[in-house]
Amino acid sequence: MKFITQILITCACLFMPMVNFAATLLPNGQQTFLDLNGKPLAGGKVYFYIPNTTTLKSTWQDSGQSVYNTNPVILDAAGRAKIYGTGAYRQVLKDANGNTIWDQLTYDTLIAGTSSWAGVVSGTANALVANASNFSSSDGQVISFIATQTNTGAATLSVNSVAINILKDIPNGPASLNGREILAGGVYSVVYDAFLSQFHLIDFKPNYNPNVIATASSTVDLGSTNTNNVTINGSGSISSFGSSANLVNPIYHVTFNGAVTLQHNVTSLILAGGTNINAVAGDSLIALYLGSGNWRVLFFSSNSNAAGSIVGNLSVSGNVSANGNLSYVGTLFGGGATSVAGYGANGSIVLPIGAGVRANNSISARGRLNDPTNTKTVTGAFNISAFVRNSLGNYTVNFTNPLNNTNYQASITNVANSNISFFVGCNVGSQTVSSINIFCQSTFNGSPIDFQSLDLMVSGGQ
Hints:
Blueprint (H helix, E strand, L loop, with lengths): L1 H14 L15 E2 L12 E5 L23 E2 L5 E2 L6 E7 L5 E8 L8 E5 L1 E2 L3 E4 L11 E5 L9 E4 L2 E9 L2 E4 L10 E7 L4 E4 L10 E4 L13 E5 L2 E3 L12 E6 L3 E3 L6 E2 L6 E3 L4 E8 L2 E8 L6 E4 L2 E3 L8 E5 L2 E3 L13 E3 L12 E8 L6 E6 L1 E8 L2 E6 L8 E9 L7 E8 L3 E8 L10 E8 L2
Parallel strand pairs: 7-10, 9-11, 12-15, 16-17, 17-19, 18-20, 21-24, 25-27, 26-28
Antiparallel strand pairs: 1-4, 2-3, 2-5, 5-6, 8-9, 10-14, 11-12, 12-13, 14-15, 19-23, 20-22, 23-24, 27-29, 30-31, 30-37, 32-33, 33-36, 34-37, 35-36
């Protein structure tokens, strides 16, 4: 029986269709080095170092890396040697008398120019160190790693003992990191830009945290918090909001947890009425970055319930802000169209917290839109009655009181998305006096996508 089985196997092999593979050129089994005249470099020496250093790096006589070469490798009478290596090398070729033939960068043929996995990086929060031996400073090479610390400012990644700056790509061009772009425990990838000699952080997404805490001081640098929603703890005087913010997303919401004096400056911190503002715990404001370290406070909301009383005529050319009852005897003049939330008896205008008297160039509507696929709620609403979801990523926001015209501006900030696989970007569409259209899409592939929450602010239109 065993004999019959062997015959059947043999026959099957004879009649099995043959599969032909294309042949390829084979590289030489040994490398041959030549002198400057093109002759074999008999007795020459080949030194191998970590790129950009004088630190020796090992090579082998076999692909299994079991037999080390000497360093330098001594060439035979025909200028030949067996040299196997991994990753990138600085290769220095010299003749038998020690004269340098070349000093060049080289790397293995299997993985040069492709991605490399550096694992857990070492170093500090802003000076990372990666182990990526195949990195050769070639354009387009990618290194992926796990961060152990959260960066607090500009950061570098050292590879082969060379510190290389890491950039983030934002709408107005590549920029150095400024904090919290790399978070402890996260997996990140960078791609090398040979023209700039710097890394770019791949798929950079701004880290819009729900809230970041800052401490009151003469300068509170809002841009360094890497979020547009900041709570300021402590007490003191603030004369500047810093210069780290950018003009791509320039509107910030600030809440105070202590007694703070905002000091008016006609250039760097422009406050309504040209006077200082004394804020207490619970007060908040919306500030607009103008560039070059200059700011304008667009809106200030007080959380106190004190009532004010004015005797005589009140002439308003800007904004009127009141958190309790604004009582007056005489005439109230508005510099533009006014809209009040309610009216009281005997000439009192009652303004609930968050409401206001609107004048030219003031806030026309604002609020945070939440959960468009379910509850569709609006928190902190002023002159926004509701919003509807027209379709995936398309919404209409309705004003409680129509505006006078469509010459208004709208800004969208603090966009959040529950799907962490995509980053959602939202923009303003069509505008009418009674509503405004918003559309959102994935910044990954441009397809429509729903947001989880966003802040909308409308100014002008009176």
